[in-house]
Model the fold of this input.
Amino acid sequence: MINRRTFGKALGLGTGAATAALAGLPAASASAASAAPRNGAKAPTVPTAAPGAHTSFAPLKQVRAGVLDIGYAEAGPAHGPVVICLHGWPYDIHSYVDVAALLAAQGYRVIVPHLRGHGTTRFLSARTFRNAQQSAIALDIIALMDALKIEKAVLAGFDWGSRTADIIAALWPERCKALVSVSGYLITNPEANLEPIAPAAEYSWWYQYYFSTERGRLAMQDKDKRHDLARLVWDTVSPTWDFDDATFERTAAAFENPDYADIVIHNYRWRLSLAEGERRYDALERRLAARPVIGVPTITLDPDRDPFTAPGNGTSYRDRFTGAYDHRTLTGIGHNVPQEAPAAFAQAVVDVDRF
Done:
């Protein structure tokens, strides 16, 4: 899911933290060089909202963009300021079903696309290589913005979505008004990924190594096995999230995309230098391997119950963000931040838009 991380300690959830978690709000927040709102204007407060208040979007839309026909949800006024919310693995657009409603109520036009290989997003040609390297996915979102005639947007994401938003903010800052990035700076350097990390952290990556094997590839092609594997990941990386079966099944439907297995397997194998990318992306990947800084206004979010959250309260990546910046730690929250803590995520979007 995320770039090389040090295994974080599982923290206890006290009464106050539990109350905040149920409300979707951060129980603790730590800032590093906090940014002041523009012109001293205070950002509106997003109403408290418990996770799961919403279960569906309006009928999805489709648009041809780049090599894809992208399926996406849209909420809010058509001429409102745009926020693009990006999901990760093994998730889909439903990670943002509550966030989208909260932001729409604040006047935002919210776009939530299915990434390539997920949901109703399809490749336009059967001949297109099913490539899931990081720069290709980022260019999908640029193509989506072009197709929808969106010049600039606030980008917000977690997991694959954080990485994608980070890349756009770093390489095409003119398209990114501001950034909300769960787990901070996730741009991948495949060469650096060849270095072993702490055993506890390696242990949490079991599925990544599983996908490096033929057994893992076959499991992803098997409907029942990939369903159960994804459910196990949900349970493991969100230990305090009390979601029901229906919540998981709404997302699992997105795994029926005919390209899902190929995209997931290629993504993880490419990160470990076990699968080739495409040469047309080489120049972009060289720039990303150099760990470019991000200068757009940014809020980073660290969920403290996510096993991939690095210790240090964001210090490990602070130097990668050179613009207006704030860091927040969400107590009692696991990996799927927007679905576990929708009000805190939406508040970060509203706040960063006013930096």
Summary: The mean pLDDT is 90. The two ends are 29 Å apart (CA to CA). Strands lie at 61-65, 68-75, 82-86, 109-113, 122-123, 153-157, 176-182, 298-303, 325-330. The longest strand covers residues 68-75.
